[in-house]
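If you are new to this repository, start here. Below is one unmodified record pulled from the training split, so you can see the exact layout before writing a loader.
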Amino acid sequence: MAGFRPRGVGCRHCRILHAQAPFWRRLSRFWRILTMKTRIITAVIAVLGIFPFFWFSAPVEPTNILNYAFPLLISLISLFSVWELLHGLSLDKNYFVSVPFYLASFCFPMLARVMRQDLHAYRQIAIFSVLAIAIYLFAVMVFQFGKLDTGKIGLAFMTSAYIVGANAGVIVLRDVPQFGRYLFLIPFVFAWVTDSCAYFAGRLFGKHKLIPRVSPKKTVEGAVGGFVCCALTTLLYGFVVARCFHVTPNYLVLGISGLVIGVVSQIGDLMMSAIKRQQGIKDFGWMLPGHGGMLDRFDSSMAVTVLVLIVSTYFPFFY
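And here is the target side for that same chain:
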């Protein structure tokens, strides 16, 4: 009688699981709704919190404390982003390694405002500092030989330089004469539009995974949706700025930049996702409930900042 099984035997658990399936589906749906509400509430509070800093972001007299309010905000974002990175790489407790990163991450965005009249000297200081930190880290690796993961040190150095440079770039963009108030918003607005549209397009139409080993939830359809929305938003942004502030947008530069930003923004996100997957962590931090940490929220805008800095150096976004 091998293979014989009395009727009902072995199926009881199947029936129980089948009966409980609607409960688990409802629980999963409730959790997704709760997570979305948390994301929205956090986003609203964050926008309300940073709005005064953005409103008073313009450079004024060096003796006016408002001159340093916006750079202070960006410096804190830079500092916490670097801390989250080092924490994810398990380097934050090694103070011989972490302290120079913390100092650079806080000081350079602030220094960009202080030295806005002499950016050439600022760039020289930045280059010298990068070389000095690199030599210092080599010395630390020599004295702590066998105790440090050189791969993690190299990754921390490169990624921290990118984070600090991008955040300092926000201040540089804001301090561009005449058009800075429109330029520095581009990385934030376009990166978040791309991220939001990619998320909803992926939820509605996503069927094909983009790079599942790096970001399991991202889809090709979501990436295309974010790309298209970003391209359209750049033109809309130019139109709104033209109507409200009476400046002339360079629609050709805005349009082409919008296409590139739609790609670069998502690459910035995937870059940080790759580091998280490599380290086996879900989020870099917890400071923004529903979003993760500072680095989870601003990874895309950092990549876009670098792009906008390069483009604006050679081509005007506005006349």
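Two things worth knowing about this chain: The longest helix spans residues 12-55. Residues 62-175 form one domain.
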